[in-house]
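Can't attach files on this board, so I'm pasting raw text. These are the components:
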Amino acid sequence: MHNQSRSKYNSHLIKLIVALIVAGGLGYFARQVFMPASMGTYGHYRGDDIVDQLNVPIRLQTNESCFQCHRPIRQIHKEGIHNSVSCEICHGPFGDHIQDGKKVGVLPVKKGKEITQLCLRCHNKVIQARPRKSIKMIGLPEHLEQKGVRVDHTCDQCHMVHDPLLWINQAKRMMGIKEAI
Amino acid sequence: MIDIKKEIERDRRAFIKKVLGGSIAGSLLLVLPAGAVDIAEQIPGMREEKAVFTAKRFAFVVDITACIGCGSCCVADKAEYNVPDGHYRTWVERYIIDDHDNVFVDCPDGGLHGYIRAREGLPHPTRDTFFVPKLCNMCEKPSCVQVCPVGATYQTKDGFVLVDKTRCVGCSYCIQACPYSVRFISPATHTAEKCTWCYHRVRKGLLPACVEVCPVHARKFGDLNDKNSEVYKILHEPHVISVLKPDMGNKPALHYVGLRREVV
Amino acid sequence: MSGAMQHGDTILALTNYVFPNDVYVHWSLMIVLYPYITGIVAGAFIVSSLYHVFGIRELQPISRFSLVFALAFLCCATWPLLLHLGHPERALNMFLTPNPTSAMAGFGYIYSAYLILLVHEILFIYRPTMVGLWMNSTGIPRKLYAFLSFYNDNLSDEAMKLDHKIINFLAGLGIPMACILHGYVGFIFGGIKANPLWATPLMPVIFLLSACVSGISGIIFSYILIRKVTGKPIDVTCIRTSLKFLWGFFILDFVFEMLEVFSHFYMSTHHWHVLESLLWGPLYTTYWLLQVKIFSLIPFFLLGAVCLIKFKDRVVLFVAPIVSLMILIQVLLMRWNVVIGGQLMSNSTRGQVSFVPEWLGREGILAAVVVMAAPVVILFLLGKIFPFWMSEEPKDS
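---
Top answer:
Structure tokens for the assembled complex are below.
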């Protein structure tokens, strides 16, 4: 090699080491800058996310929330056999109706065949997996035939949806039938 | 159903009407966040928990012998979180075991629309059939938290496994790691999402949405440190109680009453 | 599903239900390419180390080329990951807040460390060449070469001795690093207990061995191709030695791959019933037919013949590219079968899904072709800066 080289034999290594140290330092600095402030407060995660999680809006509420305004139904629903059925499953989430104490939308009311469909979600006899002890099962055309009504009757024509046995028990009382259903 | 204070309701409707009509200016109701506080406390002692983490030990119990497979829980869950179609935070499976010990499972739309048809085309008569609701197992040793490369999914000190969607990179590693397949990548946010046992509700003293709506009380939620809670009583009585995939070693806090060996 | 149902009643009963969230294959083509590319990198590096560290002199002609080859692929190793991520803009979170318990979190650091090491090994090995080019060029290339030789034109014995020490150190350090880089990629899969196909301590070993295999065959194939295209002579001794190493690594690789399936079969835990319905179900074609029967057994015997029987040079030069290409395909199939196959079975243990990659889209076939073509382009560009072959260096001393 020519002897004119003015560089020291190890100058490239020194430059390299300096460059790597500078790059490492810059990386460390960048890490400090971009690290979320609450990272590691409680564990290896952004502690502030707990607050974000708490602020997820509650869209579904309780039946009592509905009854705060819808009082007549409250009485019927609570005394009936359907008292464990949630309002919002049939009518839609509270959050679509009321937000921050203000009415923001109208929840749809199910009608006709939709009601039959809703009833069959729970009461359909062909779904055998249901424990019989807790719920009454209905085979659909048979039940209507047995009761002697038209086959195109919807459930709500005999059963008050919020308390299915309300009208039936009333009728039985009027007719003087003692046995309970 | 849950026992709720009866006194507070007097003339409530008239009051709210006035509020809506603006006749009570600057009403308290408008200041309260999302009406959460005016529901009676459903988990005893929750409203006194002011620290970042509660001192409770939560457990979820699903009673398979009670579930009627109506899918109310799935409807509630979808409504509470606007869960994208085709993805499930919770779902209800139908198991059918025939008399040749074959097991048939199905779960159309995650049970969201209920079970309307009997399963057809099975070769042998059915011996046993039941529903199994599934949701996040809230493992004591969660695989998803272990594998998350950026610390976006984490476990709180009171046992909730949550996802920070501002940190999640959407690598799907947690989805691969979860033995229970409760996670999915939300097509809306491109981040991992899963059941949280309704952390935001529980911290405000409310029950998880699916527990709230279950008509047959097949889903139960409570504090194991509270000896009067229903979950404590169930887990300390001689029922057939098990967790899913115990050999995974994840130690789920989700327990099943009446779990059959066929269920995975 | 129908394939799995041929296996009698037990399987029939086990093959009917997929968890509703399990119908998606989250890790698709891009995650197939990711271990493939890192594997080629690790393998190519091993080839160069065989010369630089283990003193296999016959491999000297490809020792520099294999390093540049490794760099070209390493440059693209993160592309499939970025294409896959739901939030690629948050990819640096891996550096910012790596979770110490996550098998994946180390990738950012391991990858960067390896990239730094590889670049420096190349720069130190090429320094005399770079200095020569620096002295003999003008304009922008002159500045570039000056930069690449660290602005140090000192090539005295003292300086070369120092460089040699550094090269030895980097090459020595590079072997465990390459093994970690790729063994670790295997562990990303091997550490997932929820997946019976992945969860085995053999997974990192298989990944590492198949990495060596794919790297060596990638080098052999591209060496012969480039020399042929540019009309330069091919060093047959070098090819013969490489083929011997390829055969050795491939024996180990293939044996371990089969051992994994066999031990699952022999132990016959409930995992086996899941795996059986997978391997004879949706994975039958890509696993048994393509990966094992065609692209493993044929190269296995071809390689054995070439290594054991003394064929003429012409025959070796004819067989070598075919065998290495077949093995490259075998490794790609193996990645496919592991990555995609593992996700085709549901955690329900009762059913499988099928998967057909999309053509367009971020993780489609087209994107995969681009990702696989990119290293070739980068290799071409790097070849303009770093001469691959020793004979092309300017003789200036």
